[in-house]
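[agent] plan:
  1. take the single chain provided in the ticket
  2. run structure prediction with default settings
  3. attach structure tokens to the ticket
  4. add a short note for the reviewer (M.T.)
[agent] executing step 1
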Amino acid sequence: MLFLVIYFLLFLVLIFQGTHVAAEVKTPLGTVPEEVAQNPVSSTRWGILLLVVGFFGSAMGLLGFRSSTLAAARPGFLILGLAVLALYGLWVIFLGRKAEFIGKPAADDHGHGHH
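[agent] step 2 finished; step 3 output follows
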């Protein structure tokens, strides 16, 4: 029973996170500066991937109540979901946000830092 709770929670997290990542491109929340915003193309692709895996895993989990073959495949689907979530986490932490400072430097004070 605990396995099923963890299983379905994982795929719900994938669905909600995929929806957030894909929707952030069209309607950003504005919680981070533009310099560190996610790449729109990559965000959309990750969102779609997370949604597809989330819905696929949820559907296979629910169909597992009718088919013993699919019920036996649930641990494999769980590992797949965890792997996709881990790869997404690595992308967010290490590859997703790169600061691109495009502004002009502040005015030079010519060494007069205090008045």
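[agent] step 4 note for reviewer: The first helix runs from residue 2 to 26.
[agent] ticket updated
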